[in-house]
Amino acid sequence: KFEPSMQDRARLRLALETDLRAALALQQVKLREALTLDQFAVHYQPIVDLATGQLTGFEALLRWQHPTRGTLNPDGFIPLAESIGLIGALGSWILRRARHDAARWPLPAHGTPLQLSVNVSPLQLREGPALIAGITEALQGAGLPAQRLEIEITENAMAEQGASVLADIHRLGVRLAIDDFGTGYSSLSRLAQFSFDRIKIDRSFVQVVGGTAGSARPVAPSNAAWMIRPIAALGTGLGISTVAEGVETAAQASLVWEAGVTEMQGYLVSTPVPADAVPALIARLDQASPYWGVRR
Ligand code: C2E
Ligand code: MG
Ligand code: MG
Ligand code: MG
């Protein structure tokens, strides 16, 4: 049976694809050089340390300021950009744009330079040499040493990938994070073949307490805490940090803190903000109560 909603979705996809081609394909030259694109922006969401409450860095999140549909989130158009062969150029632009912004971030009061995390799609990973070239290019110029840049790769993309491109990224001195950990289909033996610097625990494990809706893959509340615990322990054992994604309430922050997670990200601290709002956000977080309402 052909559902109307399916037809609507197909129509929307086609319309967006046309718009995306127009917004990007016509700007191929600009894409390869420009720092500014008419319809695209990179927003930044803070990540804070749970033990100290201090800001450790920001994740770059792409936004499409569509001329008639308003601001669109990447889940709705990254797959389209991949399917029309534009993700490589767009990905390089994001890296350049984010590096430019991060190089200008003020130092927080605690004095440790902030990290920049950038998402990379499975297709970008598969086009390994182009990705390495894009990262290398983005690192040129002053202001952002390689150790301050982190590339986020979803668990699935990492499992599908040969270790070589990940080793190439590491060789540049750039850090690697596994994104959306716990939702993929990779095995621990597969993950053991890679080295990475951070584990980001998917928000479906976090958003089981505190009454939030909208989790894509609900996990039973009683199970969630038991699943976060061994992931946090894995991070501790490997000597790397773990980030709880999608923390919206103090109850959720308490849950992940008690489970041994080291950092958090989510609306409790801040939604993603435009680049020009970052300095004020850094100043606000300098002043913030260090505990975020976490029970301890
Ligand atoms: P992600 O990397 O797992 O990013 C986290 C997503 O969770 C973001 O959605 C963020 O806005 C959202 N989020 C943060 N805190 C909360 C919270 O407290 N509650 C809820 N409900 N959501 C929260 P966004 O920005 O829509 O991005 C979706 C996905 O698109 C990202 O998931 C990432 O996989 C991908 N993406 C984003 N930017 C880029 C990019 O520049 N390049 C590529 N290749 N992919 C990107
Ligand atoms: Mg991410
Ligand atoms: Mg994630
Ligand atoms: Mg995600």
Automatic annotation (TrEMBL):
Residue ranges of the TM segments = none
Using the record's annotation, list all stretches that form the EAL domain.
24-286
Q: Which domain of life is it from?
A: Bacteria
Protein name, UniProt field: GGDEF-domain containing protein
**Upper classification of the organism:** Bacteria, Pseudomonadati, Pseudomonadota, Alphaproteobacteria, Sphingomonadales
**Which portion of the complete protein is shown here?**
167 to 462 of 462
